[in-house]
Amino acid sequence: ISFVFLEQSLHRTPQKMKPIIQDEIDKAAKEDWDYVILSYGLCSNGILGVKANHHPIVIPRVHDCIALFLGSWKKYMEEHKKEPGTYYLTKGWIDEGKSPIGIYREYCQRYDKETAEWVIKEELKNYTRIALVDIGVGLSETHREHAKENARFLHLRYEEIKGSLAFFEKMLRGWWSEDFIILKPCQEVTQELFLIL
């Protein structure tokens, strides 16, 4: 098994995702692998048009990749129905500085603080809750405090949600059920592939 990790910031710029992901898939064509596993959901249509070349590509059948950290699409939908205005945080998002406060700090480099605060709060005005997903690996009190600080900053309710590595385990062990899409060589990602959800 070989892993390639891409920048998390691609989630905020889905229009940049496809060419970067496609480039990695094209590089993998020279490798003697059975499959390429893409650990992305539909993610704001960022993977639309990604094409399998030499290897079949396995993709989780999820619209939002937070379902991977919750353990299933079913768990994601339960949370979404219960609280649709949820901004999810994971250890990785916090470590990469991609929480609302991290984004606010980026904005402070472009705008004055007052404008930066207005912009981030305007972007997130429809959210009602910050939910920290605990998958049971590496989450510290520092992460929890940072998530709570985000909730206070945005005047949102804070909750911690138990996540799971089950989706990742199924993905890596080859336990591919209807929860996964398997692209054949020369097939490309379309929205229709995700409609079975």
Q: Which short descriptors sum up this protein?
A:
single chain; 197 residues; alpha/beta; 39% helix
Please describe what this structure looks like:
By secondary structure, the chain is of the alpha/beta class. The chain has two domains: 8-65 and 166-194, no CATH class; 73-162, no CATH class. The protein has helices spanning 14-28, 66-70, 73-82, 91-95, 100-108, 113-123, 141-154, 166-173, and strands spanning 36-37, 57-60, 86-89, 129-134, 157-162, 180-183. The strands form two sheets. The protein has a three-stranded mixed β-sheet with strand order 1-2-6, covered by helices on one side. Strands 3-4-5 form a three-stranded parallel β-sheet. Helix 7 (141-154) links the parallel strand 4 (129-134) and strand 5 (157-162). Helix 5 runs antiparallel to helix 6. The longest helix has 15 residues, at 14-28. The protein is globular and about 50 Å long.
